[in-house]
Amino acid sequence: MTSWSISCAKQGWAAKDIYAALGRYYQSLTGLPVPVRAEGAGEAARDAFLYLLAFSTLATWTIALGSLMFNLYRSLVPGSAGAACRCVSL
């Protein structure tokens, strides 16, 4: 708060009236309306982060499950999966 608004508050002005007076003063100086924060500002960024987190978790689980299933198949059916890879030498 500025010294002007503190002195107005000491004289008994309500905070709503102080901000309204400052808004009118700003508007008279610049000719522009007072910027108003939109409802739900920042919600899109939070939603994007949560979607990113959900899809990365899904990707991690999918890769881990695929690897687990491949290793399980490899151990249960020897010589079927990856047998050709063991013979090849570079």
Helix/strand layout:
Layout lengths: L2 H8 L4 H16 L12 H34 L6 H5 L3
Brief rundown of the structure:
The chain has 90 residues and is mostly helical. The chain has four helices and no strands.
3D shape: rod-shaped
Portion of residues in helices? over 70%
Distance between the termini: 73 Å
Number of helices: 4
Total beta strand runs: 0
Q: Order of SSEs, N→C?
A: HHHH
Structural class, please?
A: mainly alpha
Poorly predicted ranges: none
Mean pLDDT: 81
Strand content: under 5%
Radius of gyration: 32 Å
* Biggest sheet layout: none
Q: State the domain count.
A: 2
State the main characteristics.
2 domains, mainly alpha
What does this structure look like?
By secondary structure, the protein is mostly helical. It has two domains: about 1-35, no CATH class; about 45-80, no CATH class. Helix content is about 70%, strand content about 0%. It contains four helices and no strands. The protein has helices at about 5-10, 15-30, 45-75, 85. The longest helix has about 35 residues, at about 45-75. The radius of gyration is 32 Å and the shape is rod-shaped. The model has no long low-confidence stretch (mean pLDDT about 80).
